[in-house]
Amino acid sequence: GRAIAQEIMSGKGQQTPLDATVSLSDAGWSRMLAVHLNGTFFCTREALRWMTPARYGRIVNLASTAGTTGLAMVPHYCAAKGGIIAFTKSVAREVMPFGITVNAIAPGFIDTPLLDPFDALTRMAVLSGIPMGRFGRPEEVVPSAMLLVDPENSFMTGQVISPNGGQVI
């Protein structure tokens, strides 16, 4: 982690292999997909059991920029979040005739406990890739969710909104 960050920051390029995919256990892969992708499926399926007969609903799934661009070291997380994006688009097409919208929010790096394991050098390396020069705050994701659940927002479905400080444009 730290050695690789130093290599990257040196400007000479990375020399040490990451080996994240090679060393990822079957259990680690399965757990990540179960929590994120399966969890999204189970919640969506249950919500649709209520929304379809009502002929109205708003589903907002939580993805990540990791699912749109990929990130080194976390292939299982990226796969799960990318799967959520594809799942969101698929379900949006399926339930559109019933007044149900299905969208996703794909935040960039948000300052939550998920970032706690980052040491100062890793934080600096990540921040260097965010044009706004800072991590997002959780309350900056809320307006995206509010837009997607607004009853007046009936023409937006199958979309991914990404509050990310300009990291992914």
What is the quaternary state of this protein? single chain
Number of beta strands: 3
Share of residues in strands: 5-15%
Cα Rg: 18 Å
Distance between the termini: 27 Å
The major beta sheet can be summarized as:
3 strands, parallel
Low-confidence stretches: none
- Derived structural class: mainly alpha
Q: What is the typical, i.e. mean, pLDDT?
A: 93
H/E topology pattern: HHHEHHEHHE
Helix proportion of residues, in percent?
40-55%
Strand order of the largest sheet: 1-2-3
Shape category: globular
Please give the count of helices: 7
Could you explain the architecture of this structure?
Helix 3 runs parallel beside helix 5. The chain has helices at residues 2-9, 20-23, 26-54, 66-69, 75-95, 120-127, 142-149, and strands spanning 57-62, 100-105, 160-161. It is mainly alpha-helical and 169 residues long. The mean pLDDT is 93. Strands 1-2-3 form a three-stranded parallel beta sheet, with helices on both faces. It starts with a helix and ends in an 8-residue tail after the last strand.
What is this entry, summarized?
By secondary structure, this protein is mostly helical. It is built from 7 helices and 3 strands.
Features:
49% helix; 3 strands; globular; 169 residues; three-stranded parallel β-sheet; 8% strand; mainly alpha
